[in-house]
Amino acid sequence: MDEPCVRVDREAGEESRQVLADAGVLDDSREIVVEDGVLYIPVVDAAGVPDGFEVVARAVPDRETQTTPADVLGFEPSYERLGDVVILDEDDDERAREIADAVVASDLPVGAVLNRASKVKGELRVRDWDVLAGSSTETVHREYGCEYHLDLAEVYFSPRLATERHRVTSQVDPGERVFDMFAGVGPFVIPAAKRGAEAVGVDLNPVAVEYLRENAERNGVADRVTAIEGDVRDVAGDYGGWADRLVLNLPHTASEFLDTAVTLASEECVLHLYDIQHEDDPFGPGERAIREAFEPAYDVTVETRHVVRSYAPHEVNVCLDVRVVSA
């Protein structure tokens, strides 16, 4: 039976496999086929394959099974992977340690197993971790062709937002001026720069800014990235009217920074405002806040109202893609 596969030259095989894995579409249950210098990489969802890949249908053999944590435990545990770190979110310490032991005993390549020990807290948005296996909270995460070196104990980073970050940065055109107001280690800044934009990232967390600078070097875009440690409200005056695209990814409080966004916006600018709201009116508060800040000096057009993910019971994480044009 034919299965969807991505067809790539052998030389691009490993990089392509990693991009497909980061996008969550790699089919680990089937073997990669090599034929006449071409690789056929099985995928689980042809529609989810990132732009730029050729998808074909062909027969591929099943992969020999490997031991998974579920094989060891007898049930399917819930976990995330970030680089070689496995992340758990278990309230029961005994269950968390049982899962960690199973992860280590499985065939998963793993450097550490961490369990969330607190919620994201403070203005630097970090959390506490219980290290259940391994010794380091530092890792290198690969996502849509970019690499991010980071320390989970020192910075905020969510692997769950990979698809959303790709959705936004895929809109960036060469020559754009992109400003990330809460940049972290660079998951919006780096891919924007790789697409040919000039990108500025600001963050209060000095460790995140150091990682951002390192990641710009790591991904070959240091010449197009400016990393600034500080409060974006203090930085905005140096970039007045500069930004063609603004990322405001600080759910719960991003709307409080819209006056700063007005300062930064060029005569025509696209905003990506992230918000967390009740499911009964997920977009209204953010849209009203944007209009209050930008009108009447700008014409405001909401281009996309997008639900990113469920956040809590009856609450959703959303993004508003909004174009503002000087009136």
Automatic annotation (TrEMBL):
GO MF annotations in UniProt: methyltransferase activity
Entries under SUPFAM superfamilies matching the protein: S-adenosyl-L-methionine-dependent methyltransferases
PROSITE patterns: SAM_MT_TRM5_TYW2
Top-rank taxon, per record: Archaea
Domain SAM-dependent methyltransferase TRM5/TYW2-type: 79-326
Record bears the keyword Translocase: no
The keyword tRNA processing is assigned to this record: yes
Pfam family, one: TYW2_N_2
A biological process term (GO) from this entry: tRNA methylation
Transmembrane segments: none
Alphabetic keyword roster: Cytoplasm, Methyltransferase, S-adenosyl-L-methionine, Transferase, tRNA processing
Protein name: Class I SAM-dependent methyltransferase family protein
